[in-house]
Write a structure and sequence with these properties.
By secondary structure, the protein is of the alpha/beta class. The chain has helices at 42-52, 66-69, 72-79, 155-166, 181-191, 196-210, 220-226, 235-241, 248-261; strands spanning 11-17, 21-27, 34-37, 58-60, 82-86, 98-100, 106-108, 111-117, 126-130, 135-139, 142-143, 146-147, 173-176, 218-219. The protein has one domain (11-261): 4-Layer Sandwich (Metallo-beta-lactamase, Chain A). Bound molecules: zinc ion (ZN) and fe (iii) ion (FE). Residues 65, 67-68, 140, 177-178 line the site of fe (iii) ion.
C-alpha cells in the first residue's frame, strides 16, 4: 500500500517513561488509530493516551529490551491492541501479533512504514520510517549525538545499520528512545572538538535541558553534521580513532569503545 498524499499527517506525541526513556504516540486522525512505540510502562502510556482522548490500537516495538517492551502485555490485556515487532526477534517480543522485516514493512493508521533491519545494539533491532510524515523511530540504534551500545552485534553490523539511517532525507525527524543527548554531547565534543556545528548543537542541547525541554526529536541533517557515530568515515575522526588501513567500521568500533570508557 502506498502512502496517500491527501492523508492528514500523523500526530506524534513524545512522553517520558522510567528515568530516561521516551515513548511516542502516533495518532492517525482519519482512522483514529493510535500506536505507541516502545512502551516501557503500561500505566504511563495509557495516561498519555487519555490526555489526548486517544484509544490505543497498536504497539510498535523496535527491540526486545525490557525498557522497550515492558508495557506490552498489560497494554494488550487492557486495550486488545495489536503488537508489531521484529520478525527476527519474534520469540523475545512479549505478545507479538505481527512480525515484520524489511520485506514486509509495517502497516499502521492507513500508512505503510518502511522497516529497516538495524542490528548492532541487539541482533534483531528494527527501525520504522514513515516517509510521508518524515519520521523515523529508531529505538536504541541511533541516539542524538550517539548510538546504542553493542550488546549483541559487531561494529560492522552497527556501521551498516547507521548508514541505512544516514541515507534518509536531512529533514527526517529522529525519534530515538532515550534522553542521552547531553552526556552524548560531552563525548562527541571530546571526539571531534573542531566540529563547529557540533559545538553550537551542544550549546542548544544544554539550553534545552536546563529549561527542562526534550532534545528529541532530532533530525538526520543535524546528526550527519554532529554525531561522531555517523561520521566514522570523516577525516578528523579517522585520524583520531583509526589506523591508516582501518575500515570505516573499525573506526566506528574504536569510537564506540572510547565512549564505553568515557
Ligand atoms: Zn535497548
Ligand atoms: Fe533502551
Amino acid at each position: 500500500m502506498l502512502n496517500d498524499r491527501s492523508q492528514p499527517p500523523l500526530e506524534i506525541v513524545v512522553f517520558p517513561m522510567l528515568s530516561d526513556n521516551y515513548g511516542f504516540l502516533l495518532h492517525d486522525p482519519a482512522s483514529g488509530d493510535t500506536a505507541v512505540v516502545d512502551p516501557a510502562e503500561a500505566e504511563v502510556t495509557l495516561a498519555a493516551c487519555s490526555v489526548h482522548g486517544w484509544r490505543l490500537t497498536h504497539i510498535l516495538n523496535t527491540h526486545h529490551h525490557g525498557d522497550h517492551v515492558g508495557g506490552n502485555l498489560a497494554l494488550k490485556a487492557k486495550t486488545n491492541c495489536t503488537i508489531i515487532g521484529p520478525a527476527y526477534d519474534r520469540d523475545r517480543i512479549p505478545g507479538i501479533d505481527v512480525a515484520v522485516d524489511e520485506a514486509s514493512g509495517a502497516d499502521f493508521g492507513g500508512r505503510h512504514a518502511q522497516v529497516f533491519f538495524v542490528p548492532g545494539h541487539t541482533r534483531g533491532h528494527i527501525a520504522y520510517w514513515f516517509a510521508a510524515d518524515k519520521a523515523l523511530f529508531c529505538g536504541d540504534t541511533l541516539f542524538s549525538l550517539g548510538c546504542g551500545r553493542l550488546f549483541e552485534g559487531t561494529p560492522q553490523q552497527m556501521w551498516s545499520s547507521l548508514l541505512k539511517l544516514r541515507a534518509l532525507p536531512d529533514d527526517t525527524r529522529v525519534y530515538c528512545a532515550h534522553e542521552y543527548t547531553q552526556s552524548n554531547a560531552r563525548f562527541a565534543l571530546a571526539a571531534e572538538p573542531e566540529n563547529a556545528a557540533l559545538r553550537s548543537q551542544a550549546e542548544k542541547v544544554a539550553k534545552a535541558r536546563s529549561a527542562g525541554a526534550f532534545t528529541i526529536p532530532s533530525d538526520i541533517g543535524t546528526e550527519k553534521a554532529c554525531n561522531p557515530f555517523l561520521r566514522a568515515d570523516q577525516s578528523d575522526l579517522r585520524r583520531r580513532f583509526g589506523s591508516v588501513d582501518a575500515s570505516d567500521a573499525d573506526v566506528l568500533g574504536a569510537i564506540r569503545a572510547a565512549k564505553d570508557r568515557f
